[in-house]
Design goal:
This is Chemotaxis protein CheA. The chain has 769 residues and is of the alpha+beta class. The chain is 45% helix and 19% strand. Helix 4 packs antiparallel against helix 5, helix 6 packs antiparallel against helix 7 and helix 15 packs parallel to helix 16. The relative contact order is 0.06.
């Protein structure tokens, strides 16, 4: 029976994306002069895991590329080559190629063969060059030789403990024995791929036990493992499946194949001799040498050693069982280059010099194992399912509001239990809504982690030295906004690198540190998130911006405030760059940045100081699915004003209302003259109050500017579920979305930013009149 494994494609693609991102981050943080062994091991494991998964699904180009990369990384982590900056550059370039190949396979397309061939050739050249300049490496042989006696010594300790305590050795003795055996396995030549050949069925075989696996998955795994070698024995015992495999692949490749179907805790790999009958059905309760307690595992290993002849040089030696994991393979089980150990007739205890590194390896492996356990507590859920859940919770909140509206006419004295139940329902509905919304929230590290590579490459291209500093990576933002903020932030970072931060020579001449600093930060402020891009460069030049604006025919003057001057760079086609490059200078970026931010319900501000640097500040709502709003009445209509724009409300006096040119009106509030926008005039609402002194004036602030909005009366504050108006109707000028009120009626949510832009334009025309 042939089973379809394409159902696991998405899991592979998702995990491979995460591994590539992790690999890039580790490479960027790697100290070339003194690389951290744990980081090198983690980079190697990422490449190895991707290779194993790609081989499982038949992604040939991806497999071949990662195989060459993995070989280089393996030599690096074993100190067989000295890292150089050009090597790191090539590894990063390879990561980009792997990302492209992954994207092609995801789209059911074949990757570009020429690109794959070029990067493989580049990696092969690095491999050849490093081998030519490297001294012969034979240091691994003593380590392997000293590890085997450690196993023998550990088994002897168990035998002595059994003699003293009646067959039950202390737990710590067993644990030490298992650890020693595990170290011996990792030091054996088999880890370099010299496993038992497919034709040597009479000798020891790779023994794979898969625990708690369903029948369908058993068939699938058996079929996939059969593609990696010859299954010479198989035993089913309840939900467990044990196979003896004659193969020339390493145990890590076996793990990589199995991990796409079952969890790490379900896989046990060891060595043993296949049973005579290759289709046995074991009893559910029958103990197995690969199962049971650690003591039984070591005893079974000891029996295998006694029954089987010593392995020849370059072949795999019998070993005790070792548990392995999902995509994230434990550090201790990664392949290690080793030379065949010479046989000794009287093994001695391992020297302290060999035991100390082994203990360090075990300590280093524990955090990785703990991390793997933590990952096992999470699940992958499609975004569409989360969106559906959020929509249903939104409908529940609307229904709850309708019930509250209906019961508001009841007498609380006669229906106290009903009112108590409604109050509890409202609390639970709000808690549920907040909990569901938090599922869509993602940390800003998802965005910030993309920029170290960009800054590194672009700074090198521009001949500048730049240090990237990030703050608030754990600050959360809605997933839909996270994905849409990447492009605007990328443009701002490129602008800071190209226009803001000076060259090394210019910075030294100005008395600054030769290395410029670029800071990305994120923080919550009320119901918003504030993202800032700051640099310590030259800052914006006011005179240069005004001169460029005048040259393009814009109406500007020296009396304009700094804020108004800085906002000129957001106009379409505006750029102060003296030459156009592939980085910037075409004047088609900042206006797009501003439009994108505004489409997300946010705004962008700039502050700058000549010679000290600039800061671009982006303010966004945490989510577009719900918002806290102020319900206002205009005529017989109800509108929603986003609460984060509302500053205050007041009833003006007649002497505070002024009419200026073209009939436009302004209101004076504590000495400040604010443009007055009558909401009934904007939306042609009949029956509204015409005079400001009869209605209410609400002071709004957005994009760093304040204006007054005339309404009839305030209804109240409430949290509303945002409904996309364009999806259900069409785009309406001055309206950002809609919501359903408790009585079932539809209320429109005012686009405050759009009204602000209109009043700014009108106010500018008035000032010129």
């Amino acid at each position: 029976m042939t089973l379809d494994i394409t159902q696991f494609y998405q899991t592979f693609f998702d995990e491979a994306d995460e591994l590539l991102a992790q690999m890039e981050q580790l490479l960027l943080n790697l100290d070339i002069a003194h690389p951290d062994p744990e980081d090198l091991a983690a980079i190697f494991r990422a490449a190895h895991s991707i290779k194993g998964g790609a081989a499982t699904f038949g992604f040939t180009a991806l497999t071949e590329t990662t195989h060459i990369l993995e070989s280089l990384l393996d030599r690096a982590r074993n100190n067989e080559l000295v890292l150089r900056k050009d090597m790191i550059d090539t590894f990063l370039e390879t990561k980009d190629v792997l990302s492209g190949q992954l994207a092609d396979y995801r789209a059911s397309a074949e990757p570009d063969a020429a690109t794959a061939k070029a990067i493989c050739a580049k990696l092969e050249r690095l491999n050849a060059e490093s081998r030519d300049g490297a001294a012969p490496a034979a240091a691994a042989a003593p380590a392997a030789a000293s590890a085997a006696p450690a196993v023998t010594q550990a088994v002897r300790e168990i035998q002595a403990a059994e003699a003293v305590q009646g067959g039950t050795p202390p737990e710590h003795v067993v644990e030490q024995a298992v650890q020693a055996a595990g170290e011996w396995i990792d030091g054996e030549p088999a880890q370099t791929g010299q496993a038992v050949g497919a034709g040597e069925e009479a000798g020891p075989h790779l023994k794979i036990t898969l625990r708690g696996v369903g029948e369908k998955d058993q068939e699938l795994l058996a079929e996939e493992l059969g593609n990696l070698g010859n299954i010479v024995g198989q035993v089913k015992s309840g939900g467990d499946l044990t196979l003896w495999l004659a193969t020339d692949v390493t145990s890590d490749d076996i793990i990589a194949v199995c991990c796409f179907v079952i969890d790490e805790s379900q896989i046990v790999i060891g060595r043993g001799t296949a049973p005579a009958d290759d289709t046995q059905q074991g009893e559910p309760g029958t103990p197995d040498a690969a199962d049971s307690s650690p003591a039984q595992a070591v005893q079974a290993t000891q029996a295998d050693h006694a029954a089987s002849p010593a392995p020849a040089a370059g072949t795999a030696a019998p070993a005790s069982t070792a548990t392995h994991g999902l995509f994230d393979t434990p550090a201790a089980s990664a392949p290690a280059a080793a030379q065949p150990a010479a046989a000794t007739s009287a093994p001695a205890p391992a020297p302290a010099s060999a035991a100390a590194p082994a203990e360090q390896d075990r300590k280093a492996a524990r955090p990785a194992a703990a991390a793997g356990g933590a990952e096992g507590s999470s699940i992958r859920v499609g975004v569409e399912k989360v969106d559906q859940l959020i929509n249903l919770v939104g409908e529940l909140v609307i229904t709850q509001a309708m019930l509250a509206e209906t019961t508001s006419t009841f007498d609380p004295a006669l229906h106290d239990r009903l009112f108590n139940g409604m109050a509890q329902l409202e609390r639970n509905a709000r808690d549920l809504q907040e909990a569901v919304m938090s599922i869509r929230m993602m940390p800003m590290d998802y965005v910030f982690s993309r920029f170290p590579r960009l800054v590194r490459d672009l700074a090198a291209k521009l001949g500048k030295e730049v240090e990237l500093v990030t703050f608030g990576q754990a600050t959360e933002l809605d997933k839909s906004l996270i994905e849409r903020i990447i492009d605007p932030l990328t443009h701002l970072v490129r602008n800071s690198l190209d226009h803001g931060i000076e060259t090394v020579e210019a910075r030294r001449a100005a008395g600054k540190d030769s290395t410029g600093q670029l800071v990305l930060s994120a923080a919550h402020h009320g119901g918003n998130i504030v993202i800032e891009v700051s640099d310590d460069g030259a800052g914006l030049r006011r005179d240069k911006i005004l001169a460029k604006a005048a040259k393009q025919g814009m109406q500007v003057s020296e009396t304009m405030s700094d804020e108004e001057v800085w906002n000129l760079i957001f106009l379409p086609g505006f750029s102060t760059a003296e030459q156009v490059t592939d980085v910037s200078g075409r004047g088609v970026g900042m206006d797009v940045v501003k439009r994108n931010i505004q489409s997300m319900g946010g705004h962008v501000e700039i502050t700058s100081h000549a010679g000290k640097g600039s800061t671009t500040r982006i303010v966004l709502p945490l989510t577009l699915a719900i918002l806290d709003g102020m319900s206002v009445k205009v005529g017989n209509e109800i509108f929603i004003l986003p609460l984060n724009f509302v500053m205050e409300s007041l009833q003006p006096q007649a002497e505070d209302i002024y009419t200026v040119a073209n009939g436009e009106r302004v209101v004076r509030v504590r000495g400040e003259y604010l443009p007055l926008v009558a909401l009934h005039e904007v939306f042609n609402v009949e029956g509204a109050k015409q005079e400001p002194t009869q209605g209410i004036v609400t002071i709004m602030q957005t994009e760093g500017r304040r204006f007054a909005m005339l309404i009839d009366e305030l209804v109240g504050q409430q949290q509303v579920v945002v409904k996309n108006l364009e999806t259900n109707y069409r785009k309406v000028h001055g309206i950002s979305a809609a919501t359903i009120l408790g009585d079932g009626s539809v209320a429109l949510i005012v686009d405050v930013a759009a009204l602000n832009r209109e009043t700014r334009h009108a106010h500018g025309a008035l000032s010129l009149a």
